[in-house]
Amino acid sequence: MIDYLIKFVLGGSIVVLATYFSKTKNIFLSGIITTLPIITLLNMMLQIKYMNTQEFHLAQRSGILGAFGLVLFVASCYVLTTWVRPVYAILFGILILFLYFWMYKQVAG
Asked: Count H helices, E strands: the chain?
């Protein structure tokens, strides 16, 4: 039970930091927290703890797919804010991300 509490506090801390950096207009740190590697490392530690080597390997392959999706999402939001408000850019970025994963699933089978 304490394990879940620690993970909850860590996740909440990241949200608090994201909120803080956004409000203080610290552009660099606010942008970096979008792709915070600490979450990746924490997730990998949990995968190592609960998965065997083959499952871990497959999970990392999916992680590569997710990394390309993240780059596609952030880049589309960046480009789209040239023409539309950020809220609409994010919504359209989510649509692009959904289409990316859908097309990958169609091709990969």
From this structure: 5, 0
